[in-house]
């Protein structure tokens, strides 16, 4: 077992329970560092969504997970953790968290379980090479020491949050044995924007906003929820959800625009009536004061600057054309996305080991017998909501069992 993240911890325990002598090698001085910071330190373990909904969240490679989810899915995972004494709660969107709100508690119960199972874990033990003979894995080389084995489970994680030890080592190990690596790139990552509009609103947090993503002028996707403006651009749950497609589009040389509907509960007609009513009832007030009833204070001067209306102009003097410009801006405030933040700020890694080269029924490599691959190393990625961690636990569970029970 190589890598003590969620997939590796689950795989190691399941292999021991299936009767194997198991050694888990972790290159860091302590395990599960990335797990302990997931979900802003709260650890969104899984989601109560149905299998079909889960698979849809993973896009074009989602079907690869059907077999793993059939063997060990969200209810199984929740039963597993509650059986270890971890109390769980369900929050908005079907997301499952530890009741304590502490990701560290998830790691603690996993390590206690592994200790009780009798799993041997060696820390500060990076793996430099996988040994093979006649197309089958025969062992690993760690710190210049050869360790023989009948099977290897590769669970080193992706390349996001490298400070946790997730530096993409597994891609090189897999590639050295002939596996194809789908180009890796940051996903669920904050984005950088053109100009200084976002930067001038840094720290502003908007809730219940509809965001549409346009690629070369055509609407590609959309999301609803929370948006956060930063000194470099944009982040927040909705932005992170859309970021994967945005990153891929920019890599292809496309122009990406995020359009914000700041008043999604009002259609154009209702919003226009609201503006007319506000302007008539407060006709002697300056427009910058009136707009504070519609927008956060920090957005008002930027809005008026972009639609070319003087902030001192009286609300009663606003023309029909100016009101139309304001209404259109409120429903279609646009910012161009020009880049993304580095892997150190990405929640997950997109791309990875080609899933067609891995047997979804066992997680065994189709190229090298006795090599099993699980977790974020694989070319599987979803948006936020507990989907990615469930995939790590499910593929880890299947790999751990399959590595022992293979013919």
Written description of the protein model:
- With 407 residues, the chain is of the alpha+beta class.
- It folds into two domains: 6-185 and 348-405, FAD/NAD(P)-binding domain (3-Layer(bba) Sandwich), CATH 3.50.50; 190-340, no CATH class.
- 34% of the residues lie in helices and 24% in strands.
- A six-stranded antiparallel β-barrel has the order 11-14-13-12-15-16. A three-stranded antiparallel β-sheet has the order 2-4-3.
- Strand 7 (136-142) and strand 8 (145-148) form a beta hairpin.
- Helix 1 (6-17) packs parallel to helix 6 and helix 10 crosses helix 13.
- The radius of gyration is 25 Å and the shape is elongated.
List keywords for this structure.
FAD/NAD(P)-binding domain; 2 domains; 6-stranded antiparallel barrel; 3-stranded antiparallel β-sheet; 14 helices; 34% helix
Ordered list of secondary-structure elements with their pairings:
Elements: H1 6-17, E1 23-25, H2 38-41, E2 46-47, H3 51-57, H4 66-71, H5 74-83, E3 88-91, E4 95-98, H6 103-117, E5 120-122, E6 127-133, E7 136-142, E8 145-148, E9 152-154, H7 169-176, E10 181-187, E11 191-193, H8 197-200, E12 205-215, E13 218-229, E14 233-235, H9 237-251, E15 256-261, H10 268-281, H11 287-290, H12 300-306, H13 320-331, E16 333-340, E17 348-353, E18 371-373, H14 387-405
Parallel strand pairs: 1-5, 9-18
Antiparallel strand pairs: 2-4, 3-4, 6-7, 7-8, 10-17, 11-14, 11-16, 12-13, 12-15, 13-14, 15-16
């Amino acid at each position: 077992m190589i890598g003590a993240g969620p997939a590796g911890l689950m795989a190691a325990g399941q292999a021991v329970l299936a009767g194997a002598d198991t050694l888990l090698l972790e290159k860091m001085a302590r395990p599960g560092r990335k797990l302990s910071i997931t979900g802003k330190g709260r650890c969104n373990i899984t989601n109560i969504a149905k299998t079909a909904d889960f698979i849809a969240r993973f896009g074009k490679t989602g079907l690869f997970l059907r077999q793993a989810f059939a063997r060990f899915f969200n209810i199984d995972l929740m039963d597993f953790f509650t059986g270890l004494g971890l109390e769980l709660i369900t929050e908005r969107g079907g997301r499952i968290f530890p009741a304590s709100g502490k990701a560290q508690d998830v790691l603690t119960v996993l390590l206690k379980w592994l200790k009780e199972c009798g799993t041997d874990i060696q820390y500060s033990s990076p793996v430099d090479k996988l040994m093979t003979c006649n197309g089958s894995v025969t062992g690993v080389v760690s710190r210049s020491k050869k360790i023989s084995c009948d099977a290897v489970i590769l669970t080193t994680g992706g390349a996001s949050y490298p400070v946790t030890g997730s530096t993409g080592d597994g891609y090189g190990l897999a590639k050295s044995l002939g596996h194809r690596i789908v180009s890796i790139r940051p996903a669920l990552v904050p984005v950088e924007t053109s100009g200084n509009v976002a930067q001038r609103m840094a720290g502003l947090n908007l809730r219940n906003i509809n965001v549409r993503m346009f690629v070369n002028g055509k609407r590609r996707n959309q999301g609803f929820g929370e948006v956060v403006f930063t000194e470099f651009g944009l982040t927040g749950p909705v932005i992170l959800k859309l970021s994967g497609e945005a990153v891929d589009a920019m890599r292809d040389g496309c122009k990406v625009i995020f359009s914000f509907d700041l008043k999604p509960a009002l259609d154009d007609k209702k919003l226009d009536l609201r503006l007319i009513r506000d302007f008539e009832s407060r006709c002697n007030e300056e427009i910058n004061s009136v707009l504070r009833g519609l927008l956060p204070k920090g957005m008002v001067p930027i809005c008026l600057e972009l639609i070319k209306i003087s902030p001192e102009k009286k609300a009663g003097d606003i023309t029909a054309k100016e009101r139309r410009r304001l209404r259109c801006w409120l429903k279609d405030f646009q910012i161009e996305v020009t880049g993304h933040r580095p892997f150190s700020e990405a929640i997950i890694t997109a791309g990875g080991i080609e899933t067609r080269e891995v047997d979804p029924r066992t997680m065994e490599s189709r190229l090298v017998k006795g090599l099993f691959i699980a977790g974020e190393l694989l070319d599987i990625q979803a948006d936020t909501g507990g989907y990615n961690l469930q995939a790590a636990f499910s593929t880890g569970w299947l790999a751990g069992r399959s590595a022992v029970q293979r013919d």
